[in-house]
Protein: GcrA cell cycle regulator
Amino acid sequence: MTVMSWTDDRVEQLKKLWEAGLSASQIAAELGNITRNAVIGKVHRLGLSGRAKSPSSAAPRQRKAARPAQHMMRISRPVSRGNTALAHAFDVEAEPDPIAYDNVVPMSQRLSLLELNESTCHWPVGDPGSADFFFCGGKALNSLPYCAHHSRVAYQPASDRRRTSRPTK
Structure:
């Protein structure tokens, strides 16, 4: 490994090349036996900042012409809530299940963990550590662990989750 020392002549040459607008790589090649990073470090230690602009960057760039406003016709689409991949499992536009709406579950429908089976809704309600904890127990949809209402709550599109979880400034 060769150690290069910055002589006064090399520093002066560096300053002239830097002010002429050469890049650090070009200066390193011009000085010889020095790396681009060594040039950058010396430039910062010397406090050199103002440089001549290269001819290509000094010329103002042409702006693109503004596009004329295009009138687009919006087509209304039915709004689908919940995971659209599960749309085949239940009708997205169907009315919410009146039995299990807003966690109001009739006493006769409430189930414990041991009472659950494949045809019952596995939606937990309450604190698992408390005595009044239960599962919804409503009629589960085919191949899903939840009833129609709780499936809509559980399977939401990622875009809806992102909108609600962003912190406000």
